[in-house]
Amino acid sequence: MRKPILIGNWKMNGSLHSNQALIVRVLARIRPFCKTIDMAICPPFPYLFQVRDLLGYTGVALGAQNVSCATSGAHTGEVSATMLAEMGCRYVLVGHSERRSLYHESDNDTAARFRQIKACGMVPVLCVGETLKEREQGRTEEVVERQLRAVIDENGMAAVAGCIVAYEPVWAIGTGRTATPDQVNETHRAIRQFLENCAAGAGQSTRIVYGGSVNAANAAELFQSPEVDGGLVGGASLKADEFSGIGAALANTVTQTDSSCDAVDSFQME
Ligand code: PGA
Predict the structure, then answer these.
(1) Please, which of 80, 105, 134, 259 could form a disulfide with 99 given CB 3.0 to 4.6 Å?
(2) Is the pLDDT of residue 267 over 80?
(3) pLDDT tens by residue, 43-82
(4) What digits encode the pLDDT tens for the residues 22-36?
């Protein structure tokens, strides 16, 4: 069984004062179910230290929103994977659509960043997803497979073991427009099949989460499919009631017999 995971992506939001208030409120609300699912929060870089201290030993993990493709040295403005690992990050987002579109990060850049994250023992959260135009052209599967393939070609299939794939249709991010449960289900199934074809067991063991305008009101419907292993949440992760409501909806999908489930860290190579 794959343990569901909820990841909050704060994007470029927050302040020392508001972060503290938000985390305190979130931690109070998630207590009943925080052991049932995995949870992580990805604040902007300057707040990693603060958020790490606030999360303490609650079991909610720390994540980062991006990482340099270089190891160290003359890269002004960049943050290395070693630094993120030292700060206690467990997860790192990579290939987010805002990075791809606003900062022109290519499939190859994404693959190089993925390599850095793995080399430092952290878990990449590889974001893939199509634009509205690509969906309308019927190219959704082709696009997400291209994005996955670039990472696999650069890092090998063994490196994908234990990573998380986030399916985030670009047209659903921050727009208030979510993909329908059928669209999510269909694309998650295609991603799983693609991974399974690359290495036996990879499709079944990889956690695939959905992102794009998830909120407390639509979470239960989006998470109902067994293909969906959780969510990557932007805007709603900045509101304690919304984020904890999404967490509760995700925890509700876990039955009693599932609660000892965990992600698999390796699978058989073909
Ligand atoms: P959103 O963002 O929930 O605000 O749509 C999701 C994301 O960018 O990961």
Answers:
(1) 105
(2) no
(3) 999 999 999 999 999 999 999 999 999 999 999 999 999 9
(4) 999 999 999 999 899
Q: Give the Å distance between the CA of 8 and the centre of ligand 1.
A: 9
Among 10, 92, 213, the mutation site with the greatest number of ligand 1 atoms within 8 A of its Cβ is 213
- Give phi and psi for 180, each to the nearest 5: -75, 155
Residues annotated as catalytic are 96, 168
- 65 Cα: distance to centroid of ligand 1 (angstroms): 12
Structural domains in the chain plus CATH codes: 5-255 (3.20.20.70)
Measure 140 CA to ligand 1 centroid, in angstroms: 18
Place of tokens 């009943």: 32
Determine the Cα–Cα distance for residues 129 and 270; give it in Å rounded to an integer: 27
Which atom of ligand 1 has the smallest separation from the CA of 97?
8
pLDDT at 258: 60
- Please give the number of the atom of ligand 1 that sits closest to the Cα of 175: 5
